[in-house]
Amino acid sequence: MTITRADAVRLDAADPLAGLRDRFDIPEGVVYLDGNSLGAPPRAVAGALAAFADDWRRDLIGAWGSAGWGGLAARLGTRVARLVGAAEDEVIVTDTTSGNLFKLLVAACRMRPGRSRVLIEAANFPSDLYVAQGVCELLGLELGYLDEGAPLDETVAVVVHSHVDFRTGEIADMAGLTARAHDVGALMLWDLCHSAGAIPVDLTGAGADLAVGCTYKYLNGGPGSPAYAYVAGRLQDRVRQPITGWGGHARRFAMAREFEPAPGTARLQVSQAPVIGMVALDAALDAFEGVTVEALRDKAASLGELFVALAAERLPALRLVSPRDPAARGSQVSFAHPAAERILAEAAERGVVGDFRPPETMRFGFAPLYVRHVDVYEAVERIAAVVPA
Ligand SMILES: Cc1ncc(COP(=O)(O)O)c(C=O)c1O
């Protein structure tokens, strides 16, 4: 049965999250399916940045206290914690994903002395691979690739894995893999970049030890917005991260000679917080107010399903590389085609923004807060016009 625009309109009319699009500023006529790379700007951000400039001008250095800048890292951590199934004091917003991965990976290896290997998936995001390679070189450990058959045994200190695969959108079994790592005494470190804000994440339920993630994708914090790090409460006093700057000191302004780690996740900070980025992120997270992660997942699945069904009808030359089962994929659908790069470039000229991952993958992200079903319909129409016959 052919799917029509009226079907998409009906789905939007029944969508409980439909009104949330008004919280975003998306150019007229653009179908933005790249929120899995850089989220769209929430309307509240511009005002928050203007207020930030006023606070700075009015109170100067005093604004660290009067405007609450000093407490932002922890406060933002509590806001992100709700979206990743963590306790409020288990997440801190700081640095970049790669920087946090470096710190937590070194800390994890230190918590498992005598173990000689780190495991990661070869399919993980390149920056994670490079960081893991660098940490292994630094600490004299061996790096094994889980998806290439490297054994998960008692020689492994820590396993690093993405919750959602950045190319295919496939969701990993967080509880299952964490349990396998724990069975051999290894720690488990998750990368949540492609899941937080789009699908439910249950770090506590999975028994996860450590995690990192960015805030510029589905959390819409803006380009280069600060990342976050999670440490399970039971491990927090044992985490010794390697970049011991004054930001992670127990008494930063005592100006003491020796480093003394701050309690809890605060010790993961290195130095001055990127306040501008944090102010923007704080305002961006308001877009999630009153929204449950289950509602986000349902909307994302509905958008993805519509896209897959329409593509099967109108884009038969594209090969689906994401799992067919919506429960097995995150909020993105990927297709392969030998002319993927050119198709995306021509679709972009027609106002449909997706992204390309070599050699031939097209990724389309369905950010549940602002993408509509009619956008999905419109995207397929415009892409069909540029796919070579
Ligand atoms: C899965 C994943 N991990 C890590 C990163 C790197 O993040 P950052 O630039 O914050 O280090 C990205 C960036 O897109 C990513 O998608």
Automatic annotation (TrEMBL):
Catalyzes the cleavage of L-kynurenine (L-Kyn) and L-3-hydroxykynurenine (L-3OHKyn) into anthranilic acid (AA) and 3-hydroxyanthranilic acid (3-OHAA), respectively. Belongs to the kynureninase family. It comes from Streptosporangium saharense. Homodimer. Pyridoxal 5'-phosphate binds at residues 97-98, 125-128, 191, 194, 216, 246. Pathway: Cofactor biosynthesis; NAD(+) biosynthesis; quinolinate from L-kynurenine: step 2/3; Amino-acid degradation; L-kynurenine degradation; L-alanine and anthranilate from L-kynurenine: step 1/1. GO terms for molecular function: kynureninase activity; pyridoxal phosphate binding. The modification N6-(pyridoxal phosphate)lysine is found at residue 217. One of its GO terms (biological process) is anthranilate metabolic process. InterPro entries: Kynureninase, PyrdxlP-dep_Trfase, PyrdxlP-dep_Trfase_major, PyrdxlP-dep_Trfase_small. SUPFAM superfamilies: PLP-dependent transferases. Its cofactor is pyridoxal 5'-phosphate. This is Kynureninase. Its EC number is 3.7.1.3. It catalyses: 3-hydroxy-L-kynurenine + H2O = 3-hydroxyanthranilate + L-alanine + H(+); L-kynurenine + H2O = anthranilate + L-alanine + H(+). One of its GO terms (cellular component) is cytoplasm. Keywords: Hydrolase, Pyridine nucleotide biosynthesis, Pyridoxal phosphate.
